[in-house]
Specification:
The chain is of the alpha+beta class. Helix content is 60%, strand content 12%. The protein has 6 helices and 4 strands; from the N terminus they run αββααααβαβ.
């Protein structure tokens, strides 16, 4: 019996080490920096895979990798707000659930004096309301987590997108004076100039 427990502990230990090694292999990309020499210029590639893994491991880390530092406080403000709603809805749900169970079981010790004005049906409705809010908080938290990963991946794909001086759209006012040729009065308009 003792031998089986030690063998199981060894198996769990080895499994944990393999899982840790697998996560490290995923976190460290094989081609972290590829070097392309074009006219003696060193070009570094920006890995969307690396940004996604960073954001999956720690929300906001992919945004830091993409040099979008301003998004991290916004993300963590959202996480803090979700944490507040999670705690608030959990406490309210547990309070109303305990009150409802105490009333069903005729347990006068578990009753809350602050809820004495509420009927059993109202307590049940409030319990269900906060349970629904708690479940909605879980869904929104999952969406925020996924959007964090998607944002890091998309911006990493667009990291090297060229928006230089060669790409521009210029809007100028224009006065069309064809009075001498057609006899029509002058007309005003806009002239769009796209340069790429």
């Amino acid at each position: 019996m003792q031998y089986i427990k030690i063998t199981e502990l060894k198996l769990h230990f080895v499994s944990g080490i393999l899982l840790f090694a697998f996560i490290l292999i995923l976190a460290i990309p094989q081609n972290a920096i590829s070097q392309n020499y074009t006219d003696s210029i060193k070009v570094k590639t920006h890995s969307p895979r690396k940004a996604s893994i960073y954001s999956a491991l720690l929300p906001g880390m992919g945004q830091v990798y993409n040099h979008q530092y301003w998004k991290v406080p916004v993300l963590y403000a959202g996480i803090a707000t979700l944490t507040y709603f999670f705690i608030f809805n959990t406490n309210k749900y547990n309070n109303y659930k305990d009150e409802y169970l105490a009333r069903i079981n005729n347990d006068s010790i578990g009753l809350n004096a602050g809820y004495s004005l509420y009927s059993d049906n109202t307590i049940l409705l409030l319990k269900n309301y906060y349970q629904r809010n708690l479940e909605f908080t879980y869904i929104v938290a999952g969406l925020v987590y996924l959007l964090n990963i998607i944002d890091a991946s998309v911006y990493a794909h667009l990291f090297t997108f060229d928006v230089g001086n060669d790409l521009s759209l210029r809007i100028d006012p224009m006065l069309n004076n064809n009075f001498l040729r057609s006899g029509s009065p002058p007309s005003a308009g806009l002239k769009l100039t796209l340069r790429f």
